[in-house]
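Reviewers of the previous submission asked for a worked example of the structure-prediction workflow described in the proposal, so we include one complete record here. The input consisted solely of the amino acid sequence. No template or homolog information was supplied to the procedure at any stage.
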Amino acid sequence: YFIHGNRDFIMRKQYADMAAMTLLDEQTVIDLYGTPTVILHGDEMCTQDTEYQNFRKKSRGWWWPKLMLAMPLWYRKKIARNAREKSKLSQADKSIKILDVVDEAVLATFAKHNVTNMIHGHTHRPDVHTYSSNGKALTRTVLGDWYEQGSYLVVTPQEQKLINTPFK
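From that input alone, the workflow returned the following structure tokens.
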């Protein structure tokens, strides 16, 4: 199963079929041992990063992916490298608060899907966050990026446990 992230959003069904993957919606509710859980990349909840949100909107529109896929692979790779460098420079000047999820967006996502459990990445700061809304306990688990640490989630009928493993 696969949910698009912020660097692989152009991947389409043809490739997923060749790789024996099922593409999931950007926000998908799954059942984890009886607990409805929304899984998502998470970038859409970083609403204060307006520069990134504008790029996200454009890159997921109808015309931009078609334009990118019409270009030769070598040129697309060049565009991707340049975009990644520009993104690194842009992030260096932004506070962590701007780059992180916004609580209002998190709570709206919980409410939209009527769930009490959420799992996402994108911010890459592995942790388990708890909230309370309308008398319900809500849990948001953030997975890491696999650059400086590995993180994964172990889920059993009894518990959900985030495991972090530093690479250094």
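DSSP finds six helices and seven strands in the chain. We consider this example representative of the routine output the project will generate in years two and three.
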